[in-house]
Amino acid sequence: TVVEHLTELRLVLLKIFVAIAIGSVVVFLFGEDMLNFITRVSEPSFITNRWLCRLAVLLSSPDLCINSNPISFTNIELAGQFTLHIRLAVFGGVVVSAPYCFAVIAGFISPALKDGERKVSVKFIIASAVLFLVGITFGYLVIAPIAVHFLAYYTISAAVLNQITIQSFISTVIQTILAMGLGFELPLVVYFLNKWHIVEVDFLKRKRPVAFVVILTLAAIITPPDVFSMVIVALPLWLLYELGIIATNHIKNRD
After folding, report:
1. What is the distance between the alpha carbons of residues 202 and 114, in angstroms, rounded to a whole number?
2. Between 120 and 128, whose confidence is greater?
3. pLDDT in tens, 211-244
4. Residue 218 pLDDT
């Protein structure tokens, strides 16, 4: 009955809430480590920054060397560091509890599916989780350092001094990482758009030039003014677009 389904849904939501809460408490105990992990993307010693600076020397392209100077952060709110600690804990709690939450959601949906549908749904849940994890890893290692460099050193006037608050920095990095995690879900989005007949594969194929220009434009906006950095960002997004088309075509032909 509807009441039973709503009761089960409430239980699922309660389990997810408790899992995130427990994860948040655990991460809260390691708040300083979590903070250092995120701010590390702005440090000259961060692996991506070191690699790009070495490449800048080899290619005689100084613009490639990003975040060569450490960034100083400020806090301008009385409760700023406390609220930041809470936000970091919740973010970490969501990430840590994500596998369990996916499993709970799958368990809730599973009884309503047929055997064939259940197998397909499990595959898509696994694919979604893997793509998300790959996306946030790519966001942390590649996109976040580039975005931090661009935003921290962007100036509209030399008379304006950039004073970066730790809250704005953490928010920007977390949003960037999560955005890349969601961006890597593009192949699944393409598949479902086609499956639900919202957008056909042939349309996506015809619009390749438009998609290419959009991806290049986005990459050019957030990267330093050199071709290499733009390619680093644009290439994975383009490959994901193509992967979505290929996977959808394959499944469509198989069906």
Report:
1. 30
2. 128
3. 888 888 877 776 555 566 677 778 888 888 888 8
4. 76
- Paired tokens of 176: 């960037």
Distance CA 4, CA 178 (A): 34
Q: How far is residue 172 from each of residues 145, 155, 178, measured CA to CA in Å?
A: 11, 17, 10
Residue for token pair 């064939």 = 116
Q: Quickly list DSSP for 146-204.
A: HHHHHHHH--S-TTSPP-EEHHHHHHHHHHHHHHHHHHTTHHHHHHHHHHTTSS-HHHH
Instruction: Count Cα atoms within 13 angstroms, Cβ side, for 118.
Output: 9
Nearest CA-CA partner of 169 in 27, 21, 35: 35
Residue 169, sorted as left (phi over 0), alpha (psi -120 to 50) or beta, turns out to be: alpha
- Measured CA to CA, the distance from residue 100 to residue 116 in angstroms comes to 23
Tens of pLDDT, residue by residue over 199-210, are: 777 888 888 888
Residue 73, beta-bridge partner list: 164
Query: pTM of the predicted model, to two decimals?
Result: 0.78
- Measuring CA to CA, how many Å separate 219 from each of 6, 79, 197? 44, 36, 29
The residue ranges of every structural domain in the chain are 2-184, 186-255
The yes-or-no verdict on residue 9 having pLDDT over 80 is yes
Q: How many Å apart are CA 151 and CA 162, to the nearest integer?
A: 10
19-39: per-residue pLDDT in tens? 999 999 999 999 999 999 999
Tokens 């039973």 belong to which residue?
4
